[in-house]
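Tip: read the tokens left to right.
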């Protein structure tokens, strides 16, 4: 039996299934997402979901997963697709009746991607003729519930129990307050959201059992101490995909660059001597902050006079979300220069600072850090240059959230050790 993953991306749903002991078949068009999936050992058909036929999956599909692009409901970019919403609803209604009007409707769309949100119903209509799939899980941006309600009404006429709603990924152990519109459907059980495992504030134990754990912070997920400095990203002209590595205006590429410009001159005592967490040999093993591997968590520095509190800024706009490292991140979104996340130091100097040491400049988040905040493993094999990697990460469903959504349908139980956030 097959779990079919439409718009599979770099493997958010797929990695969750791997943790649960199940494999899927992913349909994905993006070249670099396909290469990431291949390196991660995930089964992938590189294809345009809108062009691929449904018949190869008839009679063999037990579950269908979809995180379709939703330009007609997205608040990002130029929002050209907002006017396409009636066309998407029409396409869904037609495809649910076996009528393919996509070509005619597409000619009227402002954004050619808008109708992709109707593709899952095409596959579901074909599979329904064979009494499948047994369950459905779909995820999208928070503004998509009107479309999910239309899907739900159709699926109920086909014998499914359906639940739709908005879930916060932080409530399921993801170090990110990422809100997503979810649709869950099942032919064999009552569709309902998984019970939250985390809360903004830790809950005490009661007669009904232990309370929920406090939200996972960025520092916890990244293996940092409260005052660790981010590992700077070295710009080396791009990655395997070629092309320059994009940096937001005003951000720093490396600490070495800042020294060369004369904007940051550490005092001798700010050199890393040891990490209280890693042991006295850490500096010798890892070298300076500039040379640490992106896969290695930053050490906890013992230099009390030069400690800084770090926060993650979601973009360079005036109303950007800024979260301290001891909080979950805001929703990670990449793809536009205005939405590139950077670590920013607390402008308030710590007690005892002599006043001659300026605060460090902002440092761009690394792909490894962004992946960890999405609950991918630290060694997840992201393919492409930095821009291509960030695009994949920002568009992926957090695997830990996906695992909570899928486990009940697969008869599985998650344990706290199923996801190791910092590695």
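Filled-in amino acids:
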């Amino acid at each position: 039996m097959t779990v079919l993953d439409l718009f599979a991306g770099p493997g958010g749903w797929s990695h969750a299934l791997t943790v649960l002991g199940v494999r899927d078949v992913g349909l994905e068009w993006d070249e670099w997402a396909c290469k990431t999936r291949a390196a991660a050992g995930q089964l992938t058909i590189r294809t345009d979901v809108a062009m691929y036929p449904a018949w190869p999956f008839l009679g063999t599909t037990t579950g269908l997963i979809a995180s379709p692009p939703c330009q007609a409901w997205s608040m990002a970019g130029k929002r050209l697709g907002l006017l396409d919403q009636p066309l998407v609803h029409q396409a869904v209604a037609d495809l649910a009746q076996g009528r393919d009007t996509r070509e005619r409707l597409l000619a009227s769309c402002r954004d050619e991607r808008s109708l992709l949100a109707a593709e899952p119903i095409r596959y579901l209509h074909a599979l329904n003729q064979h009494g499948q799939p047994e369950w459905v899980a779909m995820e999208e941006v928070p503004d998509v519930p009107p479309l999910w309600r239309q899907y739900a009404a159709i699926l109920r006429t086909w014998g499914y129990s359906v639940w739709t709603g908005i879930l916060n990924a932080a409530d399921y152990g993801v170090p990110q307050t990422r809100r997503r519109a979810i649709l869950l459907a099942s032919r064999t059980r009552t569709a309902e959201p998984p019970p939250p495992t985390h809360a903004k504030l830790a809950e005490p134990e009661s007669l009904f059992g232990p309370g929920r754990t406090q939200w996972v912070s960025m520092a916890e997920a990244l293996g940092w101490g409260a005052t660790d400095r981010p590992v700077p990203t070295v710009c080396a002209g791009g990655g395997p995909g070629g092309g320059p590595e994009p940096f937001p205006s005003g951000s720093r590429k490396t600490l070495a660059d800042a020294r060369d410009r004369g904007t940051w001159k550490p005092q001798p005592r700010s050199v890393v001597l040891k990490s209280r967490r890693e042991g006295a040999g850490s500096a010798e093993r890892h070298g300076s902050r500039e040379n640490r591997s992106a896969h290695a968590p930053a050490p906890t520095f013992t230099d009390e006079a030069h400690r800084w509190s770090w926060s993650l800024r979601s973009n360079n706009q005036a109303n950007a979300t800024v979260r301290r490292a001891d909080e979950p991140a805001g929703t990670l979104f990449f793809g536009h220069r205005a939405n590139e996340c950077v670590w920013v130091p607390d402008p308030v100097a710590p007690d005892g600072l002599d006043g001659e040491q300026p605060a460090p400049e902002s440092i761009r988040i690394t792909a490894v850090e962004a992946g960890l905040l999405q609950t991918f493993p630290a060694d997840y094999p992201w393919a492409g240059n930095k821009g291509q990697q960030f695009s994949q990460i920002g568009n992926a469903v957090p695997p830990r959230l996906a695992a909570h959504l899928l486990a009940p349908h697969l008869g599985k139980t998650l344990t706290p050790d199923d996801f190791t956030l910092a590695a």
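The longest helix spans residues 145-157. The longest strand covers residues 161-168.
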